[in-house]
Design goal:
Blueprint: E1 2-12, E2 17-25, E3 28-34, E4 42-47, E5 52-55, E6 57-59, E7 67-69, E8 72-73, H1 77-86, E9 89-99, H2 104-118, E10 123-131, H3 136-140, H4 142-147, E11 152-156, H5 172-185, E12 188-192, H6 196-208, H7 217-220, H8 223-240, E13 244-246, H9 252-263, E14 268-273, H10 274-278, H11 301-313, E15 316-320, H12 328-331, H13 350-359, H14 366-380, E16 398-408, E17 427-437, E18 440-444, E19 447-448
Parallel strand pairs: 1-4, 1-5, 6-9, 9-10, 10-11, 11-12, 12-13, 13-14, 14-15
Antiparallel strand pairs: 1-2, 2-3, 5-16, 7-8, 16-17, 17-18, 18-19
Helix pairs in contact: 5-8, 8-9, 9-11
The structure holds zinc ion.
Residues 61, 63, 322, 324 line the site of zinc ion.
């Protein structure tokens, strides 16, 4: 006898949408058959007729617990993980923060212990952030990190000095050194691409003109700063052969540079964030408009359309949230172009937003939605096919999505530990109604039905192209 059977739903993968029944036993998918073709007896049967059955969402970019500065302290993994489950996400990938000459492996072990102590409700994997003046000894630890299940390494081309986001900047020499290691040992480099020198110049100019108010932040961090940094990182990827993942691409020029490099077989992948797919620089002028801000700066509505087109066309491979939930008072406390606060509370709305604004509005296909929200994420970060797939042997991380169900996102109904939401008032058509983690039903019709704290660390293997 099986534990669970999901019947009559349309199972969606990146390439197919067909009616299948799914059998689950001991946390894994053990049966996968054409509708009603198998006698599947189970302790629990879920009727998914009229609904889509998709692999649980994987959010490739979240920051829990971390305090980059006194005002940048993020929500816990237990709060964020629960919010994720309500939104149809069953795995998140957080970051271990290494800085300067401190040990990379130690930073990873500390973060693993912290997350374990938080007892999140969903599974998780880890990237590492290498920040500041990493030493050669730190670079030597990359091979050890990869064999221990952390294969992705994030760096910043911005945030030098004492910014509100902390001192995160890593110079190109060190990034090149990291890429040599990731190329050799089967890892992937992730880079936040905004050129710090161009930003510094723009900030000086805005101060001289008396226009340093935060709502002008797009002029402080213009499209050119993204394009410049992306171009340099593409060169390093091309010369080292290291896979390169450009986090949160924000501009038309960023998308175009990635597309051009992909045409020349540079192993580069791009990430969209759903807040950049929803908002643009005009939102800075709204009351408390800095709540919409994240780094990089929001660009124009034309850039926003280019991001959707990049996702559709496969130039951008992944849609993440960059969940970094800080209190409202902190969020609006930076009033100048050089101290505005980033961070975005979005782990719960990501899946519903992508379906509603993406699939429903014809911007991406249903199959592409599954790809960018789950399957490609699992492939790029070495979790596939355990995660990101509805297939025999995969973890039974299954989400049932009702394409007809409408829901208005209201702050009081969202589950993150946060006192505001940029999604407050958004109406979604088509939302996840059931979330299953390794065969355990966590959420059903908006109610928590699962055990708490089931999340496990999932070691990542080497990246695979989507
Ligand atoms: Zn981030």
């Amino acid at each position: 006898m099986l534990d669970v059977v999901v019947r009559g739903g349309t199972v969606v993968t990146p390439s197919t949408s067909e009616r299948f029944d799914i059998g689950v036993k001991d946390g894994r998918i053990v049966a996968f058959a054409e509708e009603n073709s198998l006698e599947l007896r189970a302790a629990r049967t879920i009727d998914a007729s009229g609904k889509f059955v998709i692999p649980g969402g994987i959010d490739a970019h979240v920051h829990f617990n971390v305090a980059l500065s006194p005002v940048m302290r993020a929500q816990s993994a237990s709060a964020g993980g629960r919010a994720a489950a309500f939104g149809g996400t069953t795995t998140f990938i957080d970051f271990a923060l290494q800085s300067g000459d401190s040990s990379l492996v130690r930073a990873i072990e500390d973060k693993q212990a912290e997350l374990k102590g938080d007892r999140p409700d969903i599974d998780y994997a880890l990237h590492a952030m290498i920040t500041g003046k990493a030493t050669l000894d730190v670079l030597d630890e990359i091979a050890v990190a990869i064999s221990g299940g952390v294969s992705s390494f994030k760096m910043f081309t911005t945030f030098s000095g004492a910014s509100a986001s902390g001192s995160m900047y890593t110079d190109d020499g060190r990034i090149w050194g990291v890429m040599q290691q990731t190329a050799r040992h089967g890892g992937i480099a992730m880079v936040h691409c905004e050129d710090d020198c161009i930003i510094e110049h723009c900030v000086h100019r805005l101060y001289r003109e008396g226009r340093q108010q935060a709502l002008n932040i797009r002029e402080a961090r213009p499209t050119l700063c993204e394009e410049a940094a992306v171009s340099r990182m593409l060169l390093l990827s091309r010369r080292t052969g290291s896979p390169l993942y450009i986090v949160h691409v924000s501009s038309t020029e960023g998308v175009e540079a990635i597309a051009e490099a992909q045409g020349r077989r540079v192993p580069v992948y791009g990430e969209a964030l759903h807040n950049y797919l929803a908002f643009c620089d005009e939102d800075y002028a709204r009351p408390n408009g800095m709540i919409y801000h994240n780094y990089p700066s929001l660009k124009s509505s034309k850039d926003r359309s280019a991001l959707w087109e990049g996702l559709r066309a496969g130039v951008l491979d992944v849609a993440s949230s960059d969940d970094f939930t800080i209190p409202f008072a902190s969020k609006i406390s930076g009033t100048q172009v050089d101290n505005a606060l980033g961070g975005h509370n979005g782990i719960e709305t990501r899946m519903g937003f992508l379906f509603s604004e993406g699939v429903r509005k014809g911007r991406i296909s249903l199959n592409r939605f599954v790809d960018v929200s789950s399957t490609s994420v699992a492939r790029l970060f070495g979790l596939y096919p355990r995660k990101g797939a509805i297939a025999i042997g995969s973890d039974a991380d299954i989400v049932v999505l009702d394409p007809q169900r409408r829901q208005k996102a209201a702050l009081a109904d969202l589950h993150s530990d946060c006192d505001y939401s940029i999604w407050d008032g958004w109406e979604f058509e088509g939302i996840p109604t059931l979330t299953m983690l390794r065969g355990n039903i966590l959420v059903e019709n908006g109610q928590w039905t699962g055990a708490g704290g089931l999340g496990q660390f999932i070691p990542a293997r080497s990246p695979a192209a989507p």
